[in-house]
Amino acid sequence: QVLVVESGGGLVQAGGSLRLSCAASGRTFSSYAMGWFRQAPGKEREFVGRITGGVIMRTNYADSVKGRFTLSRDNAKNTVYLQMNSLKPEDTAVYYCAADRGSRSTDYYDSWGPGTQVTVSS
Question: Cα 82 from chain centroid?
């Protein structure tokens, strides 16, 4: 397991922006795929986006955030960023970051952060 910690959550008005950060431990961080998930009260956790590791980094996003959220990473800082723009009240949730170290042939996140709260007011 690796240590994963999110930061950057807070309260923002609809239409505003936030940038979440996710720091992870590990000497081979650059090879990890990193994912973001969120869970709103009374709802199941849902996928937000994923950024792969390696030389060619690929991203994919949930349809609900596509075009508004952007993933990036700084491997020198062992950090992944989730830039969230045009936020909507329905984006309100606890956001979780997780690491996929490639231990399985399918996506498998074996290390999760404690989460950071994002609240979007209308």
Answer: 6
Closest CA to 51 of 26, 87, 76, 79: 79
Residue whose pair of structure tokens reads 């309100």 in the numeric block: 92
| C-alpha–C-alpha distance, residues 26 and 34, integer Å | 13
pLDDT digits (tens, 9 = 90+) for 85-103: 999 999 999 999 999 998 8
What tokens appear for 32 in the block? 């990890």
112, 34 contact by CB (below 8 A): no
Reported for 107-113, long-range contacts at CB under 8 A and 24+ positions apart, including other chains, are 107/33, 107/35, 107/50, 109/35, 110/1, 111/1, 111/2, 111/3, 111/4, 111/24, 112/4, 113/4, 113/5, 113/6, 113/22
Chain mean pLDDT for the chain? 96
Secondary structure of residue 26 in the 3-state scheme: coil
